Amino acid sequence: MDFSVKKLASDAGVFFSRAVQFTEEKLGQAEKTELDAHFENLLARADSTKNWTEKIFRQTEVLLQPNPSARIEEFLYEKLDRKVPPRPTNGEILAQYMLEAAKDFGPGTPYGSTLIKVGDCQRRLGNAEREFLQTSAISFLTPLRNFLEGDWRTISKERRLLENRRLDLDACKARLKKAKAAEAKAACEKEATPDFQETRPRNYVLSASASALWTEEVDKAEQELRVAQTEFDRQAEITRLLLEGIGSTHMNHLRCLHEFVEAQAAYYNQCHQYMLELQKELGSSSKIFLWINSLFPPPCSHPKTFGANLAASVGLPGDPSSSEAVNSTSPIEAEALQIEEVQPPASGTRKAKVLYDYDAADTSELSLLADELITVYTVPGMDSDWLIGERGNQKGKVPVTYLELLS
């Protein structure tokens, strides 16, 4: 117990003296051993590497796991050295809801069957996301974390030790300087010729004794300075080697960054392929969607057209002119219309503004983009729900419900 108390008191004294010395250096009241420019550049590069690695690591965690509560939970599991329980991705949760809804609505219905297809695609997207998260965590996040928690902690420890060695060295320099000044003063007093006629022999003896004591103190301070300088040089070399290893760290992080980009590109490419397959599966239903749009057009479409379509679909009497237009041609006659041979009528054309995006179902139709202006006109024998649209050299049928005819 006594040894522990002494050690504690000694450590407290060293800490206090170093604090005083550090404060005096900051105030310019004490000399400070400066490191060379190359060493200072290594220190600045290491600090920059640590700061940016920490920021990139944190933001990558946010990218891979946007939920802060989930990140905190994973952090706690990691600190407790326990395995993180599996958590479904958002795509997998959405897929589960869609499949359950399809089961409730009926898998044989158009809506239910489409929910099954989309839900299966979302499930595959969720699995792809899970694989991407795992790959990124292993190939990118783990090396960054290992640097911050391993190499950087070692560098920080050696830098603190180097700073302590520097403070010890400066303290020894200050002690030697003080001892030399006292020795010179004592030597001057000793060289003064004593007046034996007076009562001064005692002062001469004291001066000689003090000079010898300060000479011994100078020798002791010089020895301590040599030891402190050796320890400082050795610690500076160790720290310099660690700091020069930052270049290898950059190369390692560069390789990990390439792996992260490759994993991200593979993930997005896989998602793109899944969506293309889903579009192909749903492509056969485009005719059904067009039929639904013709029965229940968007709110901005002309009410007269909507009423005629609804009346024709349920067999109710509507506007005679509209009914005649709807029944004037059959779907077969509309398909047989050769778009390339159609010419604008003599009565002229009109401008129309597109209200919604529209994807052409076949080569006879014209795809539309919302808010664009096109030229439209009708031809004899054509369904009243459709017009001929022209955009530059492109020509094709366009649905009336997607247009706003301009005067």
From TrEMBL:
Homodimer, and heterodimer with SH3GLB1. Gene3D superfamilies: Arfaptin homology (AH) domain/BAR domain, SH3 Domains. Residues 347-407 form the SH3 domain. Belongs to the endophilin family. It is found in: Cytoplasm; Golgi apparatus membrane; Mitochondrion outer membrane. It holds the Pfam family BAR. InterPro entries: AH/BAR_dom_sf, BAR_dom, Endophilin_SH3RF, SH3-like_dom_sf, SH3_domain, SH3GLB_SH3. Residues 211-238 form a coiled coil. Its main location: cytoplasm. PROSITE patterns: BAR (PS51021), SH3 (PS50002). SUPFAM superfamilies: BAR/IMD domain-like (SSF103657), SH3-domain (SSF50044). It comes from Chanos chanos (Milkfish). One of its GO terms (biological process) is apoptotic process. Keywords: Apoptosis, Coiled coil, Cytoplasm, Golgi apparatus, Membrane, Mitochondrion, Mitochondrion outer membrane, SH3 domain. Residues 24-291 form the BAR domain. SMART domains: BAR, SH3. Transmembrane segments: none annotated. One of its GO terms (cellular component) is mitochondrial outer membrane. It is a peripheral membrane protein. PANTHER family: DREBRIN-LIKE PROTEIN-RELATED (PTHR14167:SF68), SH3 DOMAIN-CONTAINING (PTHR14167). This is Endophilin-B1.
